[in-house]
Design brief:
The chain is mainly alpha-helical and 105 residues long. It has helices at 31-58, 62-95, and strands spanning 6-10, 17-21. It is elongated.
Length: 105
């Protein structure tokens, strides 16, 4: 809203300035969020397994398997939540359009 209906952008490669209507701009998924989610999954799963493994080997209860399975699912759930939030952010931004709306000035 602070740029009204057009936004002036500078190309990093060629250095030219171009003006775009806000409906022409689209969001992309964040590479930082994807890398963070991947690191949480790839580092978190083995880390949780190594931390819970001594408890698993000493316990002979069936309930310990359920608890350990719950702990191992934490990095997977964090990965899924981060990816889902980023996907929701991108789709919400790309869905909003100004064309066709009546503007109150």
């Amino acid at each position: 809203m602070q740029h009204w209906e057009s936004k002036k952008l500078n190309c990093k490669n060629c250095g030219t300035d171009s003006e775009f209507h806000v409906d022409e701009l689209l969001a992309k998924q964040s590479k930082v969020a994807q890398i963070a989610a991947g690191l949480i999954f790839l580092i978190g799963t083995p880390l949780v397994f190594f931390l819970v493994n001594p408890i698993f080997q000493e316990s002979h209860s069936h309930y310990a398997i359920y608890v350990i399975g719950g702990f191992l699912s934490v990095p997977l759930i964090a990965y899924a939540i981060i990816n889902k939030q980023d996907q929701t952010r991108v789709s919400d931004f790309n869905r909003r359009k100004l064309k066709g709306r009546i503007h109150n000035i």
